User: What shape does this take?
Amino acid sequence: MRINYKSTYCIINPKRKKLRHQGVRIDTMKVICTEKSQILATSLARALKTSVVEVKYSRFPDGEQYLITGELDDETIIVGSVVDNDSLVQLVLLMDACDSSDNHLVLPYMGYARQDKRFLPGEPVSARAVAQVLSRGILEIITVNIHEQEVLKYFGVPARNISLAQDIGSYIKSLNLSNPLILAPDEGALTFAEHVASAGGWDVDHLEKTRLSGVEVKMAPKQVCAASRSVVIVDDIISTGGTIATASGMLYQQGAKDVFAACVHGVLTGGAYVHLMAAGIRDVVCSDTIERGCSKISAADRIAQTLKKS
Ligand code: R5P
Assistant: This one.
């Protein structure tokens, strides 16, 4: 059952009924985070002009996780990307530790969101299972470029998704490329690529796969020729980097001047960064929804603006 956010909030704290229309209460609010979202949480606190509650994280001898928080305020913004199983458990424990305050959850990267359907009988809808666990004791949830907008309906509380497409566009501007071509790796990512390209009024297209034989596949932009151009491949997630590495090789064969890669969530599993560099990608950039050495784009300001407008 979906909970009515405004009425729930008023029951919890009738004194702050009026303030619900004015965003989070900066003067009685703190940010808290899981271990793998420390940098984003700190940037968010700075953008909101508030502080981050310190948390001590440790493990019991059998490997179970433990944490203890510093002093909380009336309202808490919990920031935690689900990047692996440990970070999911840590986030659940942190949410429980914050049960004395009114909580907003910022879920910058939601692992398990890609299993958003039952593709085969007997499978879980993992996105739904995780969403339900992460709704407990939370007033509202903010996600960043969630893999499928449809996943939002699995949360038991109001959930909003924000996009960093414009921020990726701004980063591409800073590279000072001459007339770049923004390329989605497939048609499904085209809308995202269009939003990125709108930041600079650049050309946009998506890659199309053509099967040449039983073993040979060609990948090329559907409409725009890549020859002599700087190409930036953009996607929500780079996981193994396999799609982009293959595309990069083919774009160079088609005469591309240089190829760059940008994404929101740098999952970068199985040596993906090295694989992309070996494929001739000039620069790989991601945001701080997953904290990496190549996290040169921050989601903090956009999350802060969204929270202020709650
Ligand atoms: C898939 O639906 C996502 O949007 C990405 O395209 C995918 O996760 C990329 O995977 P990889 O980096 O392993 O090719």
Observations:
- The first helix runs from residue 5 to 12.
- The first strand starts at residue 29 and ends at 33.
